[in-house]
């Protein structure tokens, strides 16, 4: 059995100059993949028939669900025969960010092969009504320091994110060698020449020193397996191929239509409000109910954006990576009844004023709120803090027992 030669390298600081013999043997990585496969089988076993409930094999009558409604007819071009240093399969954020970093390191020979008609990946394909990112845009969008761009909202819309993807491609000259509406059909390693040989569905033959798979999982439609679906006589499409020619740009063509939507995932949560408002009738078919909360969104305060200094996103991420700040140990802490602490099974929290100070710092960390709403928001924050801190700062008691003594309640106190 081969001996391990040391701890594997950090993937975020990988040293390609190290000899192959210095790396762990292939069995090391095979063991890791085997453990992941075992856990996957355990999860699938809890929901038979597992992935067989869905299909991405869109052929025959189902092939139309995969057609691109956002591009014109496939333009004719000559097959490409080329040699590059780095080739990306996919044109989403993974390819864009990595390409930008390679450009910064002086790598010029970069080619992107993308099935869609533009960069963006999932943000190219998913343009359904209400599409937006559920991660704070100041954190989600990469290269904000480098591009000088500030998102317009706390949670950016899909349209803004797609436009930003194109901005990155223009800034780093990624369009020049990009091949759109093209699908990679094979990648073969030539051990003699030590290069990858790539073929596409348009007859291209490309060799590359490095091939980076940047094709995500959210761009290919996945349909529920429903008997007879291919015989449905009404108009239907997948949300990642939204047919605005049929619905109208603002869904105005659905005013006299009875609409059904299958699924209650994140896409449905975003699309259903507008569908329900604009269609004559809306039926939602769900297997598993979603967990839904209020999205606290707002426009970026232009005054806050104007005060941002170079490197603001890098510093913001450094703070996030460092974790929450710990309260100073020399601050006086409120003392609760020992019996109450025992019943709660928790340590004492910081005093209410300290909680308020920490909470008031959140807008500076997570982005600005509109000035005209500050007073109402502060009042709401104070109300939430009072609900959070009050159970700790009060000693809940039960009615006096026969001996006249008070006993601590056995559970947390409920406040209106």
In short:
This protein has 416 residues and is α/β, with parallel strands linked by helices.
Written description of the protein model:
This protein has 416 residues and is α/β, with parallel strands linked by helices. The protein has four domains: 1-48, no CATH class; 81-213, FAD/NAD(P)-binding domain (3-Layer(bba) Sandwich); 223-285, no CATH class; 335-416, no CATH class. It is built from 14 helices and nine strands. The strands form three sheets. A five-stranded mixed β-sheet has the order 3-2-6-5-4, with no helix packed on it. The protein has a two-stranded antiparallel sheet with strand order 1-7. A two-stranded parallel ribbon has the order 8-9. A hairpin with a 4-residue loop joins β4 and β5 (195-200). α12 (352-360) runs antiparallel to α14. It is globular, with a radius of gyration of 28 Å. Mean pLDDT is 80; it is low at 1-5, 345-350, 362-372 and 389-416.
CATH architecture designation of the largest domain: 3-Layer(bba) Sandwich
- Please, what is the average pLDDT? 80
Report the count of strand segments. 9
Terminal CA distance: 65 Å
In CATH, what is the homologous superfamily of the largest domain? Answer: FAD/NAD(P)-binding domain
Large-scale geometry: globular
Query: How many separate structural domains?
Result: 4
Question: Spans with pLDDT under 50 lasting ≥5 residues?
Answer: 1-5, 345-350, 362-372, 389-416
Largest sheet: 5 strands, mixed
SSE order, one letter for each helix or strand: HEEHEHHHHEEEEHEHEHHHHHH
From the alpha-carbon coordinates, what is the Rg to the nearest angstrom? 28 Å
Query: Percentage of helical residues?
Result: 25-40%
How many helical elements?
Answer: 14
Q: Structural class from helices and strands? A: alpha/beta
Sequence of strands across the biggest β-sheet: 3-2-6-5-4
> At the first level of CATH, what is the class of the largest domain?
Alpha Beta
Strand share of the residues? 5-15%
């Amino acid at each position: 059995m081969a001996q391990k030669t040391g701890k594997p390298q950090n993937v975020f600081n990988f040293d390609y100059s190290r000899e192959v013999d210095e790396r762990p043997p292939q069995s090391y990585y095979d063991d890791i993949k085997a453990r992941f496969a075992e856990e996957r089988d355990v999860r699938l076993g809890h929901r038979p028939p597992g992935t067989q409930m869905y299909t991405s094999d869109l052929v025959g009558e189902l092939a139309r669900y995969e057609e691109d409604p956002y591009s014109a007819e496939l333009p004719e071009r000559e097959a490409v025969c080329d040699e590059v240093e780095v080739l990306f399969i996919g044109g989403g954020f993974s390819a864009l960010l990595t390409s930008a970093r390679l450009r910064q390191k002086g790598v010029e020979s970069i080619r992107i092969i993308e099935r869609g008609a533009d960069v963006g990946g999932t943000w190219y394909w998913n343009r359904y009504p209400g599409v937006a990112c559920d991660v704070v845009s100041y954190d989600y969008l990469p290269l904000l320091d480098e591009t000088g761009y500030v998102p317009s909202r706390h949670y950016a819309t899909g349209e803004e994110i797609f436009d930003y993807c194109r901005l990155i491609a223009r800034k780093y000259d990624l369009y020049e060698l990009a091949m759109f509406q093209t699908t990679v059909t094979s990648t073969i390693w030539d051990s003699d020449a030590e290069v990858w040989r790539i073929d596409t569905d348009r007859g291209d033959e490309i060799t590359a020193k490095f091939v980076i798979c940047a094709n995500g999982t959210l761009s290919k439609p996945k349909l529920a397996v429903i008997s007879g679906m291919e015989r449905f006589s009404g108009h239907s499409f997948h949300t990642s191929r939204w047919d605005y020619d049929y619905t109208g740009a603002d869904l105005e063509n659905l005013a006299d239509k009875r609409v059904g939507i299958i699924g209650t995932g994140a896409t449905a949560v975003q699309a259903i409000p507008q569908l329900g408002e604009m269609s004559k009738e809306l039926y939602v078919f769900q297997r598993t109910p979603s967990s839904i909360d209020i999205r606290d969104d707002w426009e970026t305060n232009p005054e806050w954006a104007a005060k941002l200094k170079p490197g603001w996103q890098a510093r913001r991420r450094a703070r996030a990576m460092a974790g929450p700040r710990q309260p100073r140990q020399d601050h006086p802490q409120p003392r609760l009844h020992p019996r109450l602490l025992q019943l709660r099974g928790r340590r004492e929290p910081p005093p209410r004023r300290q909680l308020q100070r920490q909470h008031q710092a959140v807008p500076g960390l997570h982005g600005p709120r509109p000035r005209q709403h500050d007073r109402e928001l502060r009042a709401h924050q104070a109300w939430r803090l009072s609900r959070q801190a009050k159970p700790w700062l009060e000693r809940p008691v039960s009615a006096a027992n026969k001996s006249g003594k008070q006993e601590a309640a056995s559970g947390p106190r409920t406040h209106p």
